[in-house]
Design a protein that fits this description.
Distance between the termini: 47 Å
Shape: globular
Largest sheet: 10 strands, mixed
Oligomer: single chain
Helix content: 10-25%
Number of strands: 21
Strand content: 35-45%
Number of domains: 1
Order of helices and strands: HHEEEEHHHEEEEEEEEEEEEEEEEHHHE
Number of helices: 8
Length: 446
């Protein structure tokens, strides 16, 4: 066996998982957890020879301890961020990877349940989703780890034709405690015609090394609509992995607006399956990096039915020694005629030491398809800088204004104008060197 540091980590974590003994749940889940531990132990962590991970190092995990179980780890003092939404909304808090109790009262036609209760009510749907997660190979090591640790989770069910409004999940970690790598699972089940605005806010105080491994699985019924906004402004000591999979049927819509303004090592994976005519998946994201931060976005959309549309629109600003990665893939299968795909990834390098790796991919096996893709990595337009300087701005102020405007192309895609303005302020303040006159976004609350 390879005795390098990553394999030593795998051995240590695998031993910890086996020593934890059986977790609560039905027999099929127990067996699947055991299989996940074996897959994780045998395959190991991804490395630079793993194609989808070749630009994303896993050395950050060497500082983390094996996952812990039980709810006691969540009782440590956690400073929660001020909520992104000013208006009343349904809110769920997760502290140190543990679901806070009690859960909020859900609107009519909506169920918000802890995993154990959700398993009792929706076991058939959850079993199908849990068993669908690919556990094999080093590229799926963290999916296997999440399944092996599947204990903490949230189940959200929206009944047919119900407009559920906004659900905000606030993720935070305490400053003290062990530097553990926790797992969490979210299930979003939308029946035909249902609508849900799902928001995630990741914001912790300065912490010791911490890690979070989140899987989100969504099922959208006929004509259902899921809006998904993620704002991440974690400290540089945080390692964050998210994996989001969306199963879509006819006329369903999924829209993602993501903003990475912090974190040390951050990776987001997305998979959308368009399994019904006229389904639409829309991914937009912006990331602002400085120091040695690393953000990786991997998007894969599978057009399996005719007349479906998808869009990928990402913007990156990189300073210091930071590194960004974008891999966007769209597969149009045989028979998915009339599909439309648009991919765009543009990036600004503010430092000669910053790096950006971008790779849009199109794979087409159908006729009458509209497809376009583009990727750019460059620096600010000096003519535009000069123009602003002739209007009375200093050189530094002009450059920051142009850089901020570059990311507004994503914030302007948020339909809630008040929220869009608040996120835009957070993006501005995250720019390398800061922007004069802007606040640092939502403050923390105890």
């Amino acid at each position: 066996m390879n005795t390098s540091s990553p394999m030593t980590l795998v051995d240590r974590w695998s031993e910890s998982l086996r020593a934890a003994g059986p977790l609560p749940g039905p027999g099929w889940l127990q067996r699947l957890r055991e299989r996940a531990v074996s897959e994780f132990s045998e395959s190991g962590l991804p490395n630079r020879k793993t194609e989808s991970w070749k630009y994303t190092p896993v050395r950050a995990f060497e500082k983390l301890e094996p996952p812990a179980f039980g709810s006691d780890r969540g009782v440590q003092a956690v400073v929660r961020p001020q909520a992104l939404l000013d208006a009343d909304c349904t809110m769920v808090d997760i502290a140190n990877g543990v679901l806070a109790a009690p859960l909020p009262e859900a609107p009519n036609g909506v169920s918000i349940l802890a995993l154990a209760e959700g398993m009792q009510r929706y076991e058939i749907q959850l079993k199908r989703l849990i068993e669908k997660v690919d556990l094999e190979g080093s590229s799926n090591a963290f999916a296997a780890l999440n399944t092996a640790c599947l204990e903490q989770g949230l189940v959200v069910h929206v009944s047919e034709n119900v407009h559920a409004g906004a659900l905000l999940m606030r993720w935070a970690s305490s400053a003290g405690g062990a530097s553990q790598f926790q797992s969490f699972r979210v299930f979003l089940l939308l029946e035909a015609g249902a609508q849900l605005d799902f928001l995630e806010q990741y914001q912790s105080e300065e912490t010791a090394e911490k890690g979070l491994n989140v899987i989100i699985q969504a099922e959208l019924g006929h004509g259902a609509a899921l809006g998904h906004i993620r704002v991440q402004s974690e400290p540089e000591s945080m390692t964050l992995l998210t994996s989001t999979s969306i199963g879509q049927t006819a006329d369903s819509r999924y829209s993602y607006r993501g903003f990475d303004l912090g974190g040390g090592m951050v990776r987001h994976e997305f998979e959308a399956e368009l399994n019904g005519p006229r389904a639409f998946a829309d991914f937009s994201g912006a990331f602002v990096l400085d120091n040695k931060r690393h953000v990786d976005n991997h998007v894969s959309v599978d057009h399996a039915s005719p007349d479906c549309r998808s869009e990928q629109f990402f913007r990156g600003v990189l300073g210091g020694r930071s590194r960004g990665v974008f891999n966007g893939r769209a597969l149009i299968r045989t028979g998915a005629d009339g599909s439309s795909v648009r991919q765009s990834n543009a990036n600004l390098l503010l430092s000669e030491l910053a790096e950006m790796d971008t790779k849009p991919e199109l794979e087409i096996y159908a006729d009458e398809v509209e497809a376009s893709h583009g990727a750019t990595v460059g620096r600010l337009d000096e003519d535009a800088v000069f123009y602003l300087r002739t209007r009375g701005l200093g050189d530094d102020q002009a450059r920051r204004m142009l850089t901020s405007a570059f990311c507004r192309a994503v914030t302007e895609r948020i339909e809630d104008r008040a929220l869009a303005a608040k996120v835009a302020e957070m993006v501005d303040s995250a720019m390398p060197g800061g922007l004069p006159g802007n606040s640092a976004g939502p403050k923390a609350e105890s």
